[in-house]
Design a protein that fits this description.
By secondary structure, the protein is mainly beta. The protein has one helix spanning about 10-30; strands spanning about 45, 50-55, 60, 65, 70-75, 75-80, 95, 100, 105, 110-115, 120, 125, 130-135, 135-140, 150-155, 160, 165, 170, 175-180, 185, 190, 200, 205-210, 215-220. The strands form five sheets. It has a nine-stranded mixed sheet with strand order 1-4-9-12-17-20-22-23-24. It has a six-stranded parallel sheet with strand order 2-5-10-13-18-21, with no helix packed on it. A five-stranded parallel sheet has the order 3-8-11-16-19, with no helix packed on it. About 25% of the residues are buried.
Length: about 230
């Protein structure tokens, strides 16, 4: 008997079972090939494909799940080979980066974290698809030199507080601290710190709502202003 001769009900069950087996095999492969981090997290899932640079500089909590396409980079030396001019001498600079991810952090996928100093994500943070968090930027002081060859600048720690929700395509820039239980809207660029229990959105991000603890509601800001630098 061929598959074509099987009743549709049985064929659907077989295909469903095969899909489950493939997913389980993929998850097992992802777990087996995890690098050695600074600690030994329990129940850690980082889906394939992924790219992790200097995992020894990363501490990750338990029950963390990062979807496919994660790029976690602890910058211990700059520039990297891909950013060196092939015909020029290169002056390397060393860093002591730390990436700290708390317990029960979840990312839908395509998470980018780059740290030359420190990026810290606290417990129970939800990161939507394609979130970028950087504690450094490429230099741009010299308009005559291609920017890829310029040194890192504006290096400053980044903190995402407990329980935050970071929307899809959000970018969090160096020196930003996002207070606990805050929300960053989709497509936002956060270049200033956000107080706790606030909703910020836009490019650059502005606070549009804040939590009214007495009335137990999100209160819209009558005149949303730019987020103040902490």
């Amino acid at each position: 008997m061929t598959f074509n001769n099987l009743p549709r009900r049985i064929l659907r069950r077989l295909l469903s079972h095969l899909k489950v087996l493939l997913l389980e095999a993929e998850a097992a492969a992802a777990e087996r090939t995890l690098p050695r981090f600074a600690n030994q997290p329990e129940r850690l899932i980082i889906d394939l494909p992924r790219r992790i640079i200097h995992p020894e500089c990363m501490t990750i909590g338990d029950h963390v799940w990062l979807g496919p396409g994660a790029f976690l980079s602890a910058v211990r030396q700059y520039p990297s080979p891909s950013l060196c001019h092939p015909d020029r001498p290169v002056q390397m600079k060393n860093y002591s980066p730390q990436i700290v991810i708390g317990h029960r952090v979840t990312s839908s996928g395509q998470l980018i974290i780059g740290a030359a100093e420190r990026v810290e994500i606290h417990d129970d943070v939800l990161l939507s698809f394609n979130v970028t968090i950087l504690d450094n930027l490429h230099g741009f002081e010299n308009p005559d030199e291609p920017f890829k060859y310029q040194p890192l600048e504006r290096i400053a720690p980044v903190v995402v507080g407990r329980g935050c929700w970071i929307g899809q395509n959000a970018v969090i820039l160096p020196g930003v601290s996002i207070g606990p239980m805050s929300i960053i809207g989709a497509n936002s660029v956060v270049n200033r710190s956000v107080p706790e229990r606030s909703i910020a959105a836009g490019a650059p991000a502005r606070i549009i709502k804040s939590w009214d603890a007495e009335r137990r509601v999100w209160r819209r800001c009558a005149d949303p202003g730019a987020i103040r630098e902490s």
